[in-house]
Amino acid sequence: MDEIHKMPDWKNWLKAVVDSREPGQALLVTGSARMETWRQSGDSLAGRYLSFRLHPISVREWCEQQGGTASAALERLMQRGGFPEPCLAENPVDADRWRQQYFTDLIREDIVEYSRLHEINTMRLFVELLRERVGSPLSLASIARDLAVSPTTLKRYLDILQALYIVFTIHPWHRNITRAILQTPKVYFFDTGLVRGDDGIRLENAVATMLLKHVHFLHDARGKSTGLHYIRTKDGAEVDFALSEDERLTHLIECKLADTRVHRALAGFADKFPQAEAIQLVRDLRQEE
How far apart are the first and last CA of the chain? Predict the structure, then answer.
């Protein structure tokens, strides 16, 4: 059953179907990002379903389905993004046309359902600014001054963009969840093709999307309490990504285009968190070390 959330009173109807189905009968219910938002209101389906989040194509999936090397797959995903239509398109022009239309429709139609019509232009400008701030600590107060709106308004816009799976944010690692949420997040796009920046920024965004996919898989399919973060000290020492499980760091990951020297902050955090596996991911590496 696809796009079932467009039917009036869909949750009550689906609840009845689930409760009265034949023994052994399986139901697969799929929908857009809006389904996740509308699932939070109305009658509960608790205990009647298992939820899976469907992410863009990863390097592993591309290699398994299309063949080729991991480096070639990564290069394609950095340029095209992992959404099926632009990623699988033979012609890069077709991929660009699809993305332009997708982005326009998303702003014009989907976002209108969450905000007022006159806010569309401000929302579009906000997204354009985010495209240039990927991987950097996000100051909503600074952007709010540029757009002449309040930080509270931008926080609502960011919540809408996350609800529609356009962007996602990661927060700095902290054992205290409340303190982590209050600290400055970094923003990434689910579609790497929307990122404006050099290859280093695109690489970081592509890695972020695939790490989030891995974290969500462990949560959805294995029932593990996992998280994706970055890690940073007050003096500015930073590692791009940190994975956690049950409030314990499991991986530290730093992305580099070609720099093979061990990242000083990564080495420092590796000493501080010896239980975590420390990885420096270098795209242009002659041999693995």
Answer: 48
- Helix, strand, or coil here: 75? helix
Q: Which residues contact 251 (CB under 8 A, 6 or more apart)?
A: 241, 242, 243, 276, 277, 278, 279
DSSP tag of 106 = I
pTM as predicted: 0.87
Q: What is the pLDDT of residues 1-31, one digit of tens each?
A: 888 877 888 888 888 888 898 988 888 988 7
b/e sequence 273-284, b meaning 16+ C-beta within 10 Å: beebebebebbe
**Cα–Cα distance measured from residue 200 to residue 39, given in angstroms and rounded to the nearest whole number:** 37
Q: How far apart are CA 192 and CA 214, in angstroms?
A: 16
Structural domain spans, the chain: 1-51, 59-282
- 37-56 tens-digit pLDDT: 555 555 667 778 888 889 99
Query: Hey, what's the torsion of the CAs at 259, 264, 270, 271, to 10 degrees?
Result: 150
